[in-house]
Predict the 3D structure of the following.
Amino acid sequence: MHRIRSYSILGITLLVTLFLNLNIGKIPPIAKFLDPFQGFWQNSEAKPMQLPSHLSLSGLQDVVSIYLDENLIPHIQAKNDKDLYFAQGYITALHRLWQMEFQTHAAAGRVAEVVGPVAINYDRLQRRKGMVYAAKNALDTVQKDPVINEIVTAYTAGVNAYINSLNYKKLPVEYKLLAYTPESWTPLKTMLVIVQMADNMSGYEQSLQHIHAFHLLGEDKFSFLFPDYDLAHEPIIPKNTPWNFKPLNLKPSSIDTKIEFDNKFVPISDSQVPNKIQALPNNGSNNWAISGKKTVTGRPYLASDPHLNLRLPSIWYGVHLQSPSVNVAGGTLPGTPGILIGFNDSIAWGLTNAAWAVRDWYAIDFKDSTRAEYCYDSLLLKSQFVVEEIKVKNRESVFDTVVYTHLGPIVYDDNFTDPNHCKNLAMKWVGHYPGNEILAFYMINRAKNLQDFEHALQYHHVPVQNFAFASVQNDIAMEIAGKLPARWKNQGKSIMPGNSFACEWQCYIPMSHYPKIVNPKNGYVSSANERATDKSYPYYYHQFYAESYRNRRINQVLSQLNKIDDKAMMRLQNDNYNLAAQENLSLLLSYLDTAQLDTPQQQAYQTLLDWNFLNEAEQVAPSIFRAWQNQLSDMLWSSFYDYQLSLQKPTFFQTMYIIKNHANSNHLELGTYQNLQALITDSFKKAVRSLQAWQVEHKKLYKWRDYHAISIPHLAQIAPFSISNLCIGGGESIINANEGSHGVSMRIIVSLDKTPKAWFIYPGGQSGNPGSPHYTKFIDDWCKGKYINLSIVAPDASKRASGSEITLIPQ
Amino acid sequence: MRFFLQVVFTSLVSCILQQFVAPWAVVFVAAIFSMLIQTKTSSAFLGGFAAISLLWMVKATIIDVYTDSILSVKVAVLLGLRSTILLILLTGLIGGVLGGLGAASGQQILKIFKRKKGAFYRI
């Protein structure tokens, strides 16, 4: 009897101990996690971690000093480049290891390994897009380049030096919560960071939506609703800029490239799938450079603010790198060596997305249902079957076979359908064959003048970006960089046959024929994802996105300003002016039959009349205008919701253009409304009613900051590690761009003084640890339009706070 | 007195050991001191429970206060608790369970070995 009791008590102890220390389903091992000596409690920081003053690491050739300033920006000073990038890898991992690994897992389609079966479809898509294929190609290129190979290897070694120093206690809290441990960093992961950015910038969804629209609407309606050319006529390279090259003579194809949709391409419709029209975030950005003749100092300014998904930890990580060959600072992407946007002692540069279409979809003529071979001109080419293993946490792996053709992988087919997307198309993407992007930025980081800078751009293939440039020699420039397919007219608008060379990209546009502008008379250059050129550019291209408002507002302000100083630059980067409203509100209001409006609608009408066109956080008018824009779009383009495949509605700019100039067009669907006035009036009434409903549901007034709530989710969607409902103005098509969890991911302003200096900010903090006060340190300032100082002059040793500097010593 | 000694030794040694090893070590520490000091299973359990739960709660509270609850507030929400105090109590509960069961097990091990001697008159 007693024996049973004894053994049962021992048994219970064993079971309970195991239970509390093992991972069961979604719950982490609870004893390990709550243990105040080793568990999550140890991730709480009162002040920034006190660094050990010396650390001995193998892999270093010489001593490296890393000083963390009051914003936790590391100022790395090394005696050679190999050590410099080793140290960059080490310190970036120290602050952002979990993010680096999770993001590269996401790029490679390995999220299910960490979070379980909910991510399987996401992972399958990433594999079928050929992300790892692209990264491997990038790695091949890097491994053939001794300089960059050494740098990437050193960076990897630095990251791994940090990983190897970890025990459970020191792990980032997300590892403890999700009950896994970091694996070693590899050069392939560095390439995945680049490929991920290239994918984010190249309009995957948009490319599909455009071909769906082209086929479903027909060419006429498509060109009417989605014209190629910027009707606001303010391209990046100003109109009528002459081209100083002789263009290549490209013969247009005589093949009819339009494919009739038949059952092969359209998936089975699923009537339960809700609204297929998602407003896509526009991974756009702003940048500009101003010549000294317009500034108060006589020295140029450069400003850049990329717009990306807002996440915690932040996409950007500020770093200052210094070695005998380079002194450069700015924003980096954790996982890649070098500075991506920033400045050195001679130049400054910034990037915006050029949004050129570099992704086309081809219909493959398979010989039979095995898909082993396909027709191509007079040949039969063999497909490649790649088996992808997707590991799933706590479950068996899932296997997926992807068919590769020489054009690219088949993304959607009978084994992987998406009711919103066309299937059985091969995806041809410039991003599958990156250049040597790390080399490009390595050279830009060291550039002393415009020539050095231009020389570097040839190595940058993906993603296609507009590079703004300014130098201490008072040169400013805007140049496109990336691999640009040379297309014949309309090539790529529709699904093309993948059975003939005639339909492929014949070649790429030679770099010397790229659109660019250097030292223009008006003293400034700018870009905000608008159309790159006017119609006179001799090569045909289309953009999957072209901005119509931000660019014109930037140019409006810059053309009028003189004696520009840094405060003017900061005001412009945070400008909340709603140009779309200013241009269209009085016209729209004139359509309203005010006698029909009830009291709340009259009030809303009056609020709009009194509005100063600023989307400020505390104002109500921006919410009314936005609700009205949404209603108008929904009602005018209601037939778009009837299509089986995903497509985008025409932009607000295009909608208003049609109302103003083609009000009688039969492409404008008035539905049951007598005339446009009736529709517009009703859209206004509906908008106000929707706002009233919003107010009831949210129990507060629809101020702009609440109505267009901006949030910053955690990378793994862990709610308490996320931030929501920020107090910020701005919005879509506004310089201070934001929408949902997408917005200005970083701002930098550089003054090209004798020793350039900069102002820098992003919505997050240098530490990726939710237990650190630096996790969200910059968010408040970012909302308010403030900046921190970023310097390429590290303070000397006497001015450094104790515990803020670490010296890495070779073992 | 036994209780007091058991709590003090268990918590002190655990405090030192836990800097280096995983938390299941407290089970062994609690068992050892229970075997050395205690005689009854129920008081052993209470002593082991008190030792580790107090140790963990004090350590957690120090961290919580020193860091202004910066992370505990978030983890409390994550685990569905309404305040960091509940989180500290949960921490104490889990630690206490480990300590208590360890101590009780210690007593049972003693009993297993003792029985091997004069089993004649036992049932």
Remarks:
- Chain B is about 75% helix and 0% strand.
- The mean pLDDT of chain B is 90.
- Residues 2-116 of chain B form one domain.
- Residues 84-115 of chain B form the longest helix (32 residues).
